Amino acid sequence: MTTKRIAVIGAGPTGICSIKCLLEEGMEPVCFERTNHIGGLWRYHDEDIEGLASVMKTTVINSSKEMTAISDFPPPEDAPNYMHNKQIYNLLKTYAETFDIEKYVHFHKEVVEVDMAENYEETGRLVVVVRDTETQETSKDIYDGVMVCIGHHVYPNIPTFPGTEKFKGKIMHTHSLKKIDEFEDQVVVVVGVGNSGMDAAVEISTVAKQVYLSSRKGTWVLPRVGPKGFPLDVTLTNRFTKILMRILPYFLVCWFSEKVLNYTFDHEIYSLKPKHRIWSQHPTVSDTLPLKILTGRVLVRKNIRKFVENGVIFEGEDDVTECDSVILATGYRIHFPFLNDKLATIKNNEVHLYKYIYPPHLKHPTLAIVGLIQSVGGGFPIGEAQCRWISLVFKEKMKLPSREEMEADIKSKREFNEKRYVKSERHTIQVDYIDYLDEIYTMIGAKPNLFKMFFTDPVLFFTLFFGPSLPYQYRLQGPHAWPGARKAILEWKRRVIKPLKKDYNSQPYLAKLNVLKYVFIMLIICVILFLGSGLVAKTEI
């Protein structure tokens, strides 16, 4: 049987994961990367290049290293829990070197077109046209499948405001924001209170004369630092909490969460409180913003009503707020300019894809969109899960359901998001971290059977159930299981504390539990197992 050749577009995190997964299934990956390096978004560059994802020089990731880990590649013990973009890039480089990935990447190659081959109806093959960014020469080849791995932080969403043509200052999107030096002693308005807006306002406020943070709806701001100084996602993202949130009324969960959050700083007083509930939005993360507001370095204002020559007028105000620069932290458009419309269409940032990956109308599952997702949790584990599943589908070890079933799943997810989240283009690809990973890994047989584990390996069960829902759990069984998965799970606390306290030595999870406590907790778990759903992995695929 001829080895399948799969085109991978982009050598960012999902691109290099795609290469590894394809190799594990005995296929030949051919990766096209328009720059001269891997890493995608996480490889900082000074230049503002259209069509390339970008970060600020100061950007730090919002998810902790354990919740961001690739499932068979734990982060180093000495790595900080929240890594700077350069450290993320170095981690990706190490991953690529460990699995000898870069030799499959063709640098300075930009994909300009993907279309059906002439014999697509019979074979499912796709034509890929590539341009060499140095010589400008184009080439064309046919592949057995295509994985699109460019993400969704590429094409800026630029809103329109009355009077922008009159404004004599600078207007730019956070996509173009690299360094903060140019804003020294300026008055700057940042539009948008998502994560990029928070980062821009906080960082620029260290050099600017004044920063205004403009918001239409407000937002709930979560800290990176959680109880006892542990990363917040490590504390909250666990199966025990997930089941409680599923069992308890939604309004009660939101009320309690908002109460706890407002205990740190009152969102109403700080002019940030939105009308929607806390879990009806994608989390906005910042530990520093409250202090910046408290010290007056950042002032919160409503949406911009209009621009004038020397500044802006905010809604609810008549006076002009003079400013030198306006930075639009207004998100991104989902766009794949190289994809033929017959393959996939996007309208109002809504994607019509099965599991956010496969166009359901195509006869063959040979086109996969990877990483087109926004999770309440780390992005790398989500992307890797998709890559593992896609590689099995390409290898024909798994099949997709009927078009009717896929359409029903798409509709169900869309209706859920419309009901759960406030209306926003940023929520069209929103998923829950644990639920989505369980969904994908149940299909491929890699979701751990926690019910069985409860009796056969209680130490591991307790760690997984009450501790963070770590990516390594999806390597305990199933395709390409990893022998080091159990050890990686049990030693999570060591890797979290080690960069903070070098002489820390971890103890077994149950070392401090006496018999009565153990029995009591076991009884509680039995009740939860009975009430909760989704704990027992499905045996049929």
Shape descriptor reads globular
Largest sheet data: 5 strands, parallel
Strand content: 15-25%
Helix tally equals: 17
Low-confidence stretches: 508-516, 533-541
Rg over CA atoms:
24 Å
Do you know the CATH architecture of the largest domain? 3-Layer(bba) Sandwich
Could you tell me the number of beta strands? 24
- Total domain modules: 3
CATH topology of the largest domain: FAD/NAD(P)-binding domain
Can you say what the CATH homologous superfamily of the largest domain is?
A: FAD/NAD(P)-binding domain
**Overall pLDDT:** 92
Percentage of helical residues?
Answer: 25-40%
Instruction: Supply the CATH class of the largest domain.
Output: Alpha Beta
- Overall SS class: alpha/beta
Q: How far apart lie the N and C ends?
A: 25 Å
Strand arrangement, major sheet: 3-2-1-7-22
Protein name: Flavin-containing monooxygenase 1
Subcellular location: Endoplasmic reticulum membrane; Microsome membrane
Catalytic activity: octan-3-one + NADPH + O2 + H(+) = pentyl propanoate + NADP(+) + H2O; NADPH + O2 + H(+) = H2O2 + NADP(+); heptan-2-one + NADPH + O2 + H(+) = pentyl acetate + NADP(+) + H2O; hexan-3-one + NADPH + O2 + H(+) = propyl propanoate + NADP(+) + H2O
Keywords: Endoplasmic reticulum, FAD, Flavoprotein, Lipid metabolism, Membrane, Methylation, Microsome, Monooxygenase, NADP, Oxidoreductase, Phosphoprotein, Transmembrane, Transmembrane helix
